[in-house]
Amino acid sequence: MTKRFYSAKPDGNQSEIVAALRAAGYIVDLTHRLGGGFPDLIVYTKTDPGVAVPMEIKMPGEVLNEREVKWWGEHANCLATTVHGVDEALSYMALCDMWVKVG
To answer: What is residue 49's predicted lDDT score, i.e. its pLDDT?
Structure first.
């Protein structure tokens, strides 16, 4: 039997970040319960909803754990990011929107 890692609960700032992203018009999938280092959210760009951005949520001062570092190392070519608050999340998604529009 394969052991699965489930996050006991989302980071304390996750609901605020999710609410802000959704209020700004982004589609957000909650993936924090997948565990194994997989990011907490998948956020879709507004300029092309087919472009998914994996987003790891951390409280200020927190860093990636060992499983997360492994995941990020294996997926270095995607638009994934780690954010610590609403402003970071919205700013990063705005950059992704511009990149997708220009790209």
So the answer is: 86
